[in-house]
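Translate sequence into structure tokens.
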Amino acid sequence: MFQFLLAMRPHQWPKNLFVLGALVFSRHLFDPAYVLRSIAAFALFCLLSGIVYVFNDIQDRESDRQHPEKRNRPIPSKRLSVPWAGASAAVIGVLALWVSFRLGFHFGWIAVVYLGLNVAYSVRLKHVVILDVMIVASGFLLRAIGGGVVIGVEISSWFVLCTMLLALFLGFVKRRQEIVLLEGNAASARRILDEYSPQFLDQMIAVVTAGTLVSYALYTMSAEVMEKLGTQYLNLTVPFVIYGLLRYLYLVYQKGQGGNPSSTILRDPSLIINAGLWLLTLVGVLYF
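Result follows.
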């Protein structure tokens, strides 16, 4: 059981924080009923994403054995048998979907779409250039939308755009760092990497970085958003977003990090402090 839990990669929990975005921006952060539903949705996405990791490792176990880091995971290293991993994932997946529908009918269908999309990704779509990163980014978007649906708040188009661009930014950076790490063996570890090059990915990263910054800045200064949120000071959070993205790029290009977004963020004190200051400023602007 311990090896199965490791295969679910619990250390990737920060990716599911996207579920809580709607709770903060809808000004329900201090409402216990909303908080409980959001935490339940967060926990369910942790389970669902863990199931996706297990299924993906089963599909990629042969190629993962060629990867310097992935070869140590429970399934590629054969510490966890494929039949046991598959059966356990199926049972937990069914239970997670059942609880998702109990939490809300529409939230349940978002969970189904999330799981189905990731299964399609593991089986086929991860071999389609550019679309592979877009599918991964869609997973983050579904988390954010699910977080809004579960508490019954409207998700703005600006929120969707900013979330998608940020997810694309993280995805393209991860692809770039995989190529750099694996050097000439990239294609043997992940076939789709043969379709990318660092130069091409640098261009994609530049595009989505600029798009993320501009979209978030316009979001904070939108008259519609100001009226909806009841504040004209949301733009005070923009400097933290600028610093966060540029600091992340610094870690990627100068320190060789970024292959694992969760560990990159959690291991860098500057990013953690910046994220905390962004959240405090956001809460102060929206609630006080």
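Note: The chain has a mean pLDDT of 90.
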